[in-house]
Design a protein that fits this description.
- The chain is mainly α.
- Helix content is 49%, strand content 0%.
- Helix 1 (3-14) packs antiparallel against helix 3 (62-69).
- The two termini are 17 Å apart.
Length: 178
Amino acid sequence: MAAAAILAAMVIAACGSNSPSASSSSRSGAHLTYAQAQQAAVNVAGCMRAHGVTNFPDPTSPRAFKDAFSSSAAQSPAFQSAQAACRHLLPGGGQPSQSNPPSHAQIAAGLAFARCLRSHGFPDFPDPTNSGQLTHEMLASAGINLHQPAVVQAAGACVRVTHGFITTADVARFVAGR
């Protein structure tokens, strides 16, 4: 299983509502409570260690958990084998669902990020779509050049307003087209 799929599944789960009325379906990965997402992350961390990745960290935040899967160690055969063995513990089996809408927290994080970029000198920076998408095409249409150092610097400063839902690594991947 690709690390990106696990990351996406956990970010989707971790972005779930803190509300007790949120769905308790851990199968779909949609709208998990934070406690449910955290428990899933703890279970995956234990499984990864049990399958030979002895230095796999406990998840302390969505960002920390995501960073564990984007480390250079994630490319090793042992890590990839452990991922495959542990994916059943992830919401939806580790497969991000294309049919589930983004959570309120994900939408709020994306909107806060766009608002922050507008306040950092890019007044035409677009909001993400209702489905949470922000594409290279949307930015180009708004006259935003991703390769302009000021854009990357502002994006790096604005990740803080997303409380871990968007990281500097996410920004770098987006700029690189991945």
